[in-house]
Design goal:
heterodimer; A: about 270 residues; mainly alpha; two-stranded antiparallel sheet; 16 helices; 2 strands; B: about 350 residues; 3 domains
Chain lengths: ~270, ~350
């Protein structure tokens, strides 16, 4: 069964989230949906015209983010302005009385913060901001599969500037159902105590769950630069997702890649 | 800027006028309604930055200030270099950037203009000019247009509220670069209310508000007085027409004032009254294209330029943009205008051709 990746969630437009939650769309949002299926100058026209219908620009900025934003500065502005709008919408009395609307806003804010975190993580001098978000958001539970989100943080653990500030019990409490989770834990245990029995056992389970992973990880050039939007546990798509998330960490932790290579040949 | 919106020369000296217009084309072209203030321009952003910096400087003398200005305006990059020294906040920098992008949008066309407008929305939470651009260029229904103008107005109204209350002996809101978008937001909304069929009850309120806006800048460089004159003419509010005519003596040779005044005098005093004759004579002297376009059995081409020269056909097009009475004249009014026009031409021919002969 296919699962949506975190980056897949981040690419879902707010209107589609509303539809997932069975919330109605406004006229402006219908125009943006029409824009998505149009070509030439019509999409731009429709998106700009759609502003008439709502007080906020959340959908329009998200459209800009996906279709026009070229620099990190523009992407960050889109997301930060949207977060400001989302905060002010939470004050709205009508929304406060509607549980589903509240759920939509809180989920959308969460995804926006995750998205900002992903962008900050790519800018060395802003990585501390990403870590600040993650510290807060590792505790939350939303529609998104938080188990996967915590696994993502575990993969990044060796690269964190302030790893001691993370709640490791929480991160390690993830089950070990999929290779996405077990590869993350194997690397974490290796960073703590080297090739310990615990690390070996988790890595062996990982190799059985998804044997494609080492073939990608071991060849630096094959590590994807972009995240897939969905994956299937045990399949090549999951291996690519793991390699995207964990490539840098496996190559950064001293001896980790060598250990992976050795473990692969022995199994 | 003293001659803004005012007719400065006599139509009969056509040759000299044209020659002089070529010499001073920009000065005069800027000095018309729908001028540089009706749309954001890149020069506006430079002036905005200069005013931002000069507010933070304590110059000891005018010489000091002039010296500084010379340095700041030395080349295209010097303003931005100087600006960095004043450490504007992120929000201020973004706002300058917004004003730059939106002015580029107004200068562009098609997809490129749309991209600029879209991008500008990222940099401000007060995108008045962006909303006005969308209303004017993209909105397909009256409802869409109404909402866009309303949003622009609502932002302008909220942000200018405190400023409007502050005492000012000589308010010149159109010339203040921070404030100008607020003026545009308000003026565009009220002007739209005069045209829309969505909310006809708002017409009187809009007229009142436009009149109030003149108090915010008694020079009225944007020419709201001409819109008001023509609205009052249409609504037969003759006292108001007289009042605004008296309020702007420098416009007493302006055809945008003279034609409605002449028609009003014709309606109230009759064609033989000296006032009627005087107004229509002055009106014809100052723009002959207005009656010519009124008699043509075709639609008047829309006014598309942002500037026009006094006495020109574009001025006549602008007149028909804001005037309803001359488009749908009663038969007797039309006959009177036609007769007077022919008489004027005949007199002109006699007077000037005889001299030439």
């Amino acid at each position: 069964m296919k699962k949506t990746t975190l980056h897949g969630w981040l690419s879902i437009p707010p209107m589609d989230l509303r539809q997932i939650l069975k919330l109605p769309l406004g006229k402006g949002q219908e125009m943006i949906k029409e824009a998505m299926d149009s070509k030439g100058k019509k999409p731009l026209e429709l998106v700009l015209r759609s502003i008439y219908d709502k007080d906020d620009l959340i959908d329009q900025r998200f459209y800009y983010l996906q279709n026009f934003a070229k620099s990190n500065e523009e992407k960050i502005l889109c997301l930060q302005n949207n977060i400001a709008d989302l905060y002010s919408m939470e004050e709205n009395e009508e929304i406060q009385n509607n549980e589903v609307e509240q759920k939509y806003l809180s989920f959308l804010s969460y995804l926006h913060f995750c998205h900002l975190g992903e962008i900050f993580w790519t800018i060395p001098e802003m990585q501390y901001l990403a870590e600040n978000y993650w510290k807060v958001y590792q505790q939350e539970n939303h529609l998104i599969d938080m188990v996967d989100f915590r696994a993502i943080l575990l993969y990044r653990y060796p690269l964190l500037n302030h790893p001691q500030e993370f709640d490791m019990d929480q991160l390690l409490s993830t089950p070990e159902d999929t290779a996405l989770q077990t590869y993350a834990k194997a690397l974490y245990y290796f960073t703590q105590n080297g090739a310990s029995d615990r690390a070996k056992s988790v890595l062996n389970r990982s190799l059985k769950r998804n044997p494609h992973v080492p073939f990608i990880l071991l060849q630096k050039k094959r590590i994807p630069k972009k995240s897939p939007t969905e994956f299937e546990p045990g399949q090549q798509s999951e291996a690519e997702y793991i390699a995207f998330l964990a490539g840098e960490s496996w190559w950064t932790v001293e001896g980790a890649i060598h250990w992976l290579k050795k473990s692969m040949s022995s199994t | 800027m003293k001659e803004i919106g005012k007719v400065v020369t006599d139509w009969r000296h056509g040759y000299e006028i044209i020659k002089s217009f070529q010499d001073h084309r920009y000065a005069i072209a800027f000095a018309t309604p729908h001028s540089m203030m009706s749309e954001p321009r890149i020069a506006e952003v430079s002036n905005l930055k200069i005013s931002f910096m000069s507010e933070r400087l304590n110059h000891n003398s005018e010489e000091d200030f002039n010296e500084w200005m010379k340095k700041v305006t030395a080349n295209s990059d010097s303003i931005d270099l100087e600006l960095q020294k004043f450490h504007p906040t992120e929000k201020e920098k973004n706002y300058f950037h917004y004003r730059e992008i939106i002015s580029k949008a107004y200068k562009s066309n098609g997809i490129s203009a749309m991209k600029y407008v879209f991008k500008s929305l990222l940099y401000t939470d007060e995108p008045i000019d962006a909303l006005l651009w969308i209303a004017k260029n993209l909105s397909k229904t009256e409802e869409e247009e109404y909402q866009m103008y309303w949003k622009a107005f609502a932002i302008a109204n909220v942000l200018s509220e405190e400023y409007d209350k502050s005492p000012d002996d000589d308010p010149k809101r159109w010339t203040e670069h921070w404030y100008r978008p607020y003026m545009r937001g308000k003026a565009s909304y009220f002007t739209f209310l005069l045209e829309t069929t969505l909310d006809e009850n708002k017409e009187q309120e809009a007229i009142q508000k436009l009149h109030d806006m003149i108090k915010l800048d008694p020079d009225d460089p944007i020419g709201l007085r001409f819109i008001l004159m023509n609205q009052w003419s249409h609504l037969e509010q003759y006292d108001q027409m007289e009042a605004i005519y008296k309020q702007f003596p420098a416009d007493h040779k302006n055809p945008l004032f003279l034609y409605p005044m002449a028609l009003m005098k014709y309606k109230t005093l009759g064609e033989n009254h000296p006032d009627t004759a005087s107004f229509i004579q002055k009106a014809l002297e100052n723009n002959l294209f207005i009656p010519v376009l009124a008699f043509k059995n075709i639609d008047v081409p829309p006014f598309e330029s942002s500037t026009y020269l006094p006495h020109s056909e574009e001025e006549a097009q602008y007149f028909f943009e804001i005037n309803l009475d001359f488009v749908y004249m009663e038969e007797d009014q039309s006959n009177w205008l036609y007769k007077t026009f022919l008489q004027f031409i005949e007199n002109f021919h006699k007077q000037h051709m005889d001299i030439q002969v």
